[in-house]
Every structure is written in structure tokens, then in C-alpha cells.
Amino acid sequence: MSPDLLAPPSQTSAGAAPADFKGPLRGLKVIDAGTMIAGPLAATHLADFGADVIKIELPNVGDSMRHWAPIKDDRSLWWKVIGRNKRLITLTLSKPRGQELFKQLVREADIVIENYRPGTFERWGLGYDVLSRINPRLVFVRVSGFGQTGPYAKRGGYGTIAEAFSGIPSFTGFPDRPPTLPGFPMADSVAATFSAMAAMFAVYNRDQGGSGRGQEIDVSLYEPLFRLAEAQVIGFDQLGIVKERQGNRLAEDSPRNTYLTKDGRWVGISASSQKTFERLALAMEKPKLITDPRFRDNASRCTYADPLDAEISAWFAERDFSEIAAIFERADVVAGPVLDIRDIFSDPHYAARGNIVSVPDDDFGEVRMQNVAPRFLGTPGEVRHSGRALGADNREIFIGELGLSEAEFSSLEAEGVI
Amino acid sequence: MSPDLLAPPSQTSAGAAPADFKGPLRGLKVIDAGTMIAGPLAATHLADFGADVIKIELPNVGDSMRHWAPIKDDRSLWWKVIGRNKRLITLTLSKPRGQELFKQLVREADIVIENYRPGTFERWGLGYDVLSRINPRLVFVRVSGFGQTGPYAKRGGYGTIAEAFSGIPSFTGFPDRPPTLPGFPMADSVAATFSAMAAMFAVYNRDQGGSGRGQEIDVSLYEPLFRLAEAQVIGFDQLGIVKERQGNRLAEDSPRNTYLTKDGRWVGISASSQKTFERLALAMEKPKLITDPRFRDNASRCTYADPLDAEISAWFAERDFSEIAAIFERADVVAGPVLDIRDIFSDPHYAARGNIVSVPDDDFGEVRMQNVAPRFLGTPGEVRHSGRALGADNREIFIGELGLSEAEFSSLEAEGVI
């Protein structure tokens, strides 16, 4: 780690006081006591929409995301995204004085999110029993690989492991290749989204449901994916179906695949509904596909996906992407080119939607990253600033809000508590 | 479609009154005016946690999911999952009398979710301007392929198209194969989760944020995925990185891959942190990997991923999965076998977590499907029943709650309004 990661925030630091935050969650107080992706990203979802998120990192060390690729000038660019919109403090939760300060923060918090191995917060004397006595309104979200209970609970859980465990890779990819893992942290980021959603369910129950109390929520990395794999369980239970890898086809949809254009672009098509299929056949000037008994309905097309794909592939192979796009536009056929990030930067729809925002950054002046999602028409979220330096808000929070004296602040720094 | 899909619900129908619903969202009133996956699944997330979800389908036709594979005895099994926990009515929103009844429902609703092509609800006279005059507290969630604005807004949007458009498939899969699409409806189900999350953000803003007003939320299918692809934008913006397909490796982690055991099982490993890597090397009895300068840290291991993967693959190829699992268990190495649904049904952790539940079903008595996620310790969600017959709750809702007379009810049925 570069030593200047530890430097105090610059004078031009892009922070803003919670009173200025915008978005539907303005006024919600959240502590991000997590590390790496799943817990912190749940907090970023809330921060993107105006919650006051205080993120806790280990003094001198910081979150591991600060060292994750891609790196520019010793700074992790990924950190700048996942750490955005948060106020940042350092605190050693394994030390008694750190635990006291944490409890002081918990007194005012609506939500605490953590994602250490099950048992860690209990070992620190910060289990739900303790925290809920301090603040009965607290919602305590625990994220872990395998959840807080069950025989594998104590195993470390990484996203890759959870993805493999969910069943989804077993039917993703090509049959002659290994089960395919996604190229982004799917398990972590889906679990993060479930965590933010669930936290707000619990806040609703506390405030509108009349209980007045928060609760503990146990989120694993594999269960959200397992939840989303819609008919996997019932299909096996009722019909003995074990889904298999079949490339970009789907057993239940045809045509559904990616096709290669003459100029080397991949285009995704999903045209299983009869109307969509017929539009596609006419656009390709192949009306005989519609009357061919093999392709008469989706079920039959699934049986004859090989010859159907051969017809479509041959047509694509003879044309450049721009020609195909124009034909499909006229015929109202929906086809999706596989974009890469270069394409995305020049796409007019991405531009019109404002999906890429330029954000104040303490190191590089401005950086571009994805905007908040989704779009609220009444109280939109926003990206105020990127992830900042370690302990950027220590002084504001420990002295300004928790009321430490300058002397205490300095001695806690010296002891490695903050 | 089988004609008995249209039969009235059986006497043993597994419905329950909203007063008996359990979960944190008890009391929340939701109208699912969507179709297929993204909108309806957002509503199912809310229904799983106790919201009273009234789902609207077209009379005599029903949601397209009722005809989606897998099918048993003319019944879609997928429908039974996505339609679970909802009260079901039929209503033709394109007819004036249908629009009146819809407005009557909207009066009491907290949230309406729809996912038709942008402009459809406006054409029916049911845009946000109209609905918010009827009920200013309403949160109106609009899900669409490309969002409500921008040059592609009017295009139909399917999950496949949105996935391709998000950029993720361009770096998922093997470099010598097409960009790989996921084997489950990733774009739809991630957008559904964002929708449920966002709806609760807006409810919080209405109730606790002091506005007292709901708002319109514009969710596209591609933006949630684009949001989750963490460093894609900033990596290109700051370093010109265009992520590429590299199978089950990740550019920034090594070792991270799937490895084949002697008995043909695929096992995922992600051991990029130094401690994890060293535990793996020792468990394989290959301490020289730790001292090999090519593998001294994660960055260097990424450069030399080929020889490192060769070492690990060779070790896996000589051993059965059970032997490897025992070695890793002793050495606290986390590795994830790629499970399929057969494995999942016999896995002790899935059993201990209660991830598969047996659910009352009007057609088949009981069916098994995935349980709700995540686990709430105070007010858990539950699966009360599977997706039921078309119009199962017409009588209860139109006569019992909206106060139609028997005569009106019959004539609306005859006119195809309900």
C-alpha cells in the first residue's frame, strides 16, 4: 500500500454534510461495518439515495477494496465506486474502546450492515442482543457466505463459492466447457441488493407496521441467487428436470441465442413469442420459416433449434451489423448487440439516460462512473463524490458529532483505536 | 391453453385473508399490473414478506407465464413460483370500465408495479398524473427494457437484449466462444429486486421523510446490471480498460477458476488473498508454490495464471471430489463444488437452512420450491401458497372488497371486463 493512502483528506475534499444529501432516504442513518463487496455495496445502494452512511475501516489498513484492481497511481478505481457517497471513519472493533465508540454510533443508527464471518461480531461483544439493548429500533443486517446457521455457516464464503453453490453455473455456458461463472461479482452484488431491500422491509415494519422495533436479518451470498433461479426447484421436484448447459440457448425459448455478424459483432436475439418470431422471419425475408412445421410454435422451435439457428446464423454471417440494425429497426424486431464499454461510452441511449456521471474525486479531480439506479422522478438519488481517503471524516464524526476532545482524539489515533 | 386453466378455484384453494399474512410488510397494499417476469417478480418479493399483492391478469388469457416451460399437465410450474403468495383477479385495463375498477383499487394502494411498453398506461388513461390525483400517496413503479426516456425507450425490451446491452456478457465466458448469457433471467430478476428495493425507498420517503407523497420510479432492465458491473466504467475512463472474456478466470484475482476432479465434478476456487492462497498451496502439499516468485502475490499470480492453473488442475485431476473436500475441510480452504439441483436436494446445508419448502398447491396438492430470501429473525416471510388459477380471488375482491353486486359481477364477466 502506498503511504499516501493514509494521508489526511485534501483541502478540496468533496464531502458534504448529511443535511445537504438528496434522495428518498434522506434522514436515514446507516453504519457500514462491512468489508469488500456484499455488505459495503448494500450500504452504497442506500447512500446513493440519500442515506447518511458512515463506513468503518481498520486504522492504517483500510478496506481491502482499496487495494483491488483496477489500480491507478496506487489508488483502486473500484474503491472509488463502492466507497462513493459515504462518510469514512476508522475504528478498531476488536478493541474495547473501539467497541464503546461503535455503540455510541449505534445509538443513533437505523441500520448496521456487516459481513464478517458468523460469530465475529459476537466475539467483539457486538451481537444483536447487545446492540438491540442499546437501540431497539436498530435493523442489523448480517451478510455471510452461507448464512448465520447450518453446517457450513462457519466456512468463509466468497462470491465464487456461493455462485457455484447456487446451482446457476451448472446451467450457464457451453455443454463442452466448464460451468461458467459470471464476469462480475454476481453473488456479492445480488446479495447486496437483497440486503438493502430487506433492510427497508424491516424499517417499514418498525415504523409503519407498528412494532417500533428493528430486527436481525440473515443474508447469505448463495440464497439470493437460489431465490432468483425461478423454476429450478419445482422443475426437478415435479418433473425431474436437471437443467443443463446449452450455450446461449434456453431450453424453453427458441430462437434465443447470440449470432455473429459479418463484421464480427455478436447480437443477442430472443424471439420465442409467436408474433416476435414471425416479425423476425419476415425481416430476414424468410417467410418459409413461419410455415415450416418444425418452427410452427415455440415448443416445436425448441426441438428444432439446431436447423433454426443455422438459418439465422447464415443470414447474420452475410451482413454487417449496421445493415442488420437498420432492417430490424424498420421491422420492429428487437435484437441486442453485445456492447462492450467502448460501445457504451458512445451509445446515444446511455448518454440520454445519463447513465455515466462525472463525479468529484479527491485524487483525480473528476472520474466517470455509473450513475445511481433506478431513476426516481420525485426525489432522485445522486453521486455526490467518489470513495475518499481513509478516515476522511474522522474529525467531523468523532469530535464534531460524538463529542471527543482533541486530546482524546489524538490519543485514540496513537493507540490505533481510530 | 387448457380450458380448465379457466375453471374457478377449487374448494380446497389455498388462499388466506390478508389479515393472516405474516412478515415485515404486513399491511402494505400492492397492485401487480405487470406481465411475465420483471414487474411480477418485484411484486412477489413484496408478497413473500407479507404485503397484500393483488395481481391483475387479462380475462380468459392470463399472464404469459401461465404458458411458460416447464409445464406439467398443462400447468406452468414457473407460474406457480412467480405467482405465489398473490391474490389474483382478472381485469381488462384497455376497457373504460376496467380502468374505473383499476382506479378504485389504486385508491387504497401503496404501490403499483407495471412493466408494459412505455406509453401503454398513458394510452389507457392510467399515467402517473392521473393515478397520483386519485391517490397522492401512491408509488408507481414502471419497469421497461430501456426505461421511460431516451431514444430506445419505445423498443420492446427483453431480458436477453438488456443483458447484452449492459456490457456484462462481453466479459463473461470463454475468449474463443460467444459472449455468454446467463442460464437464468438475470436482467429481469435483478431489475425486479431493484424495483422492490426502490419502491420501499419511496415508501420511506413518503412516510418517514415527511413528504406524505408517493412518486414515479423508472426502472429499466439494463441499468440495474450496469450499476452492478462495478469498475467497468471507471476502469475504461481512467485506464482505457476494456474487459475481455477469460473463461472462469478474473483479470484481478488469481487463482480463480473452476477445476475438474478425477470423478468429473467441477469445483470453483477463489484464493486471491495471500492467506487463502497459502492455505491452498499447503493443503495441496505444494509449499513451493508459495516461494515461487511468479506466485508471490495476487498481482504476480494474475500474470502467471496459466502455470498456476496447470499446477492446481493437475492436482485436482488425480483426486476424487470427496477426497479433495476432506483435505480442504481440514485445511480450512474454501472451495465450492458446482452443484446442480440434484446435489442441492441432498445437501445438508440447504436442508438445515430450509431453503426448499413444500407449499400447498391447488393442482398438485403440494409442490416444492425455493423459500423466501433473506431470513428475518423477527418477522420472517413465508410462502403461503403457489400461484393459483386465473381469477381465483375475483369474487372476494370485486364483490367482497369493491362492493360490486352479483348482477354487476356477472355482466362484467360476460363483457370480458373481468
From TrEMBL, chains A, B:
Molecular functions per Gene Ontology: transferase activity
Signal sequence annotation: none
Matches recorded under Pfam families: CoA_transf_3
Gene3D superfamilies in alphabetical order: Crotonobetainyl-coa:carnitine coa-transferase, domain 1, formyl-coa transferase, domain 3
InterPro entries from the UniProt entry: CoA-transferase_III, CoA-Trfase_fam_III, CoA-Trfase_III_dom3_sf, CoA-Trfase_III_dom_1_sf
Alphabetic keyword roster: Transferase
Name of this protein: CoA transferase
Organism: Enterovirga aerilata
